[in-house]
Every structure is written in structure tokens, then in C-alpha cells.
Amino acid sequence: MLGSWQAKLVNRIEDSTVRTLKMQRDCVDFSSNDYLGLARNPLFQGDLMSIVLKYPSALKGATGSRLISGNTRTQEEVETFLAQRYGVESALLMSSGYIANLSLVSSLALRGDTILVDELIHRSVHDGCQMSAATKWKFRHQDLNHLESLLKKARGQIWVLVESIYSMDGDYAPLADLIDLTEAYGANLIVDEAHAVGVYGNGLVYEQGLMSRVFATVITFGKAMGFHGAAVLASQELNDYLVNFASPIIYSTGNSDLMALSIQAAYQFIDKNPTLREQLQQRIMYFNSHLKRTDRKVLFSAIQPVIIPELNKLKSTAEELERAGLSVYPVMPPTVPVNTGRLRICLHTHNSFDEIDRLTTIIKEYL
Ligand SMILES: Cc1ncc(COP(=O)(O)O)c(C=O)c1O
């Protein structure tokens, strides 16, 4: 008799949704989050190498939780750099975006509070909700009327969580409208900028001049910034609170200085190379014009979902793309809702127009 966890795995194998780890391959990259190509850019790698040569001690581990032995001047200096860049009181570095969301939600939302999340919010937010004693309600994706109907019923402190660019759909949140609505109900809005940082300058909240009107933003550095790590941008009071009450920060080894310095180097690199963003936008427009896609919600997005609800067809499309040397990730339920399995196509500065032609030619056969 199989234990229930084993039965779950067998179910996945039987319904063809099992996931396996695949080695990075030398394929044309239409699947990574390395939108600006920093992770593969030899010049950026050179900058990282210079950091290591200049500060070899940056390579060492933090040696303990940041609250015990893991805090350093370098990390605080990079936090000051981030806070100044974004015009906020405080930036708190975290080991990843997952940990940042987990820290915020699990520590802030207390018993009697209400958490309102877009139904397509990242898993890390849901996991944070599970660690919290607050009530969680989901609102329909990007549906502000539905959000308002829940705001009317919410109790305690209200926490609203959205992404500025949704990771599986690539669409943008109507940030100004969300802010007006949450302000009207005295709710605290937290925006996850994981897929906007770098692709849209400092991120959409910043670029739209809205930093002072959100409770906090989460920025991450494992995607367009080509490295890893994250930061919470907020008031000093909030970040003081996180250091005191967020278990994922308190009970875990801190970060290396290399992470902090690499993040700073990534911002300096994209400042020096403004054409990277332009190159990316050209490729996005080229892709959309070839597939005659006109949906305004994803017109300028580096994430372009192509929905193929039938799972076998989705898989065979991905396999054919792979045989053609193109790496595209098929995303299946439960990562996305049932009947919305999709190719999650990510466009990058390093994709040539010829590669995009090859991609769209195959996709057209399956649509
Ligand atoms: C919207 C969103 N938030 C947070 C994360 C987690 O960020 P990280 O990869 O830095 O843990 C991701 C990554 O998958 C994401 O897509």
C-alpha cells in the first residue's frame, strides 16, 4: 500500500504531469528569466570577476543568521544604495524573492486580519498565507470589481498582494487603479516586481512614480538582473519589524557579500547599457507581429504565453520545439489553472530574429 505522498507522485506520473529536473542544455533560450541576458553576458561576468578579485572575502558564507553573525557593512551599504535609488526609507536584502514574500505575508498578517490575493499570485505568497493565522481570500485575476467586493467584507488589517507583471501570463497590473482602490479601503498594498525589475528600469511601481503610495514592493535579482537574491523596499519601521518577526530571515543563514555586491553591479551594468532594454522590446514586437498578437496586456511583455489547453498537444509542441533546438517551457496545471496549460515563451536580448522566426513557424503549425 503506497503512502499518500507516494500515491500523489504516482498520480502525477499517470496523468502525465510529473516534473523532472532537466540539465541546462545548449539550446536557443526561450525559457529562462534572463530577459536582458546578464547571466550569460561575458562583460557582466567580468564585472563579477573584478568584485571577487577586489574583495575575495565577499565569497565567504555569512556564518550565521543576519541577527547573530551574518550582518556586514557591505550588505548595509548595498541596502543604502537600493533605498536611495528607489527613493524609499529602507531596503532589506533577502536570499530570494520566495523568502521575501514568505517573510512579509507570514509575519504581517495576524489572526483576525484579511489577506486578499490575485488568484494568479506566485506560490510564495500562498505559502506565506499558510504560515499566517489570517484569513485568505482570492480575487479573480486583475478583477478590481471583485477585489472591491472583498475589500468591503474584509476584517482587521487588510493586506492586498499583486504582481506588477504576472509570471505565467506576462500581463501588467493596473497599479494606479489598485492603489486608488486599496487606499479608499485603508488596505495595505504589496507589489511583487519580480518580472518587471530590469525589463522596465527599476520596475513598474518606480517607473510610474508610485513608490510612496504602496506599502512595500518586492524586487528580485534572479531574473533580469542575472544573479539571485531579493529586497523588500519599504519604510524603516516595516523592515525593523521584519528583522524582529519574520522567521525566514531570523532562523536562516544570512547572505554572502558577493550577492549584495553583484546586485549593485547588475544595476550599474544596466545603467551603462541602456540599449539592452531597447533590444528586448524590438524582439517582443517582432514576435508579436509574426504571430499577429495584439493583446495590449502583453504587447510589451518579455513573457508571452501561448495557451494550448490539451496537455498532449502542449507536450508534443514543446518536444518539437526542443528537437528544433529551441528551449520553451510547457507549463501545466497545477502551476496554472486547469485547461490553461501553455508554452511560457520568454523573450530575451540574446534571441536573434532568425531564432524568433524558427519559433513562430513551429508554433503556428500547432495553433
Ligand atoms: C512573481 C514571482 N515572485 C517571486 C518569485 C520568487 O523569486 P526567487 O526566484 O528570487 O525566489 C518568482 C520566481 O519564480 C516569481 O515569479
From TrEMBL:
Q: In which pathway does it act?
A: Lipid metabolism
Start and end residues of each Aminotransferase class I/classII large domain: 26-354
InterPro entries, per this entry?
Aminotrans_II_pyridoxalP_BS (IPR001917), Aminotransferase_I/II_large (IPR004839), AON_synthase_class-II (IPR050087), PyrdxlP-dep_Trfase (IPR015424), PyrdxlP-dep_Trfase_major (IPR015421), PyrdxlP-dep_Trfase_small (IPR015422)
* Gene Ontology biological process: biotin biosynthetic process
The protein's UniProt keywords, in alphabetical order, are: Aminotransferase, Pyridoxal phosphate, Transferase
Name of one Pfam family that matches: Aminotran_1_2
Which parts of the chain are coiled coil? none
* SUPFAM superfamilies xref list: PLP-dependent transferases (SSF53383)
MF GO annotations? pyridoxal phosphate binding; transaminase activity
State its cofactor. Answer: pyridoxal 5'-phosphate
Q: Which family would the database say this protein is a member of?
A: Belongs to the class-II pyridoxal-phosphate-dependent aminotransferase family. BioF subfamily.
PANTHER family listed in its UniProt record: 8-AMINO-7-OXONONANOATE SYNTHASE, CLASS II AMINOTRANSFERASE/8-AMINO-7-OXONONANOATE SYNTHASE
Name it.
Answer: Aminotransferase class I/II-fold pyridoxal phosphate-dependent enzyme
- Protein species of origin: Sphingobacterium zhuxiongii
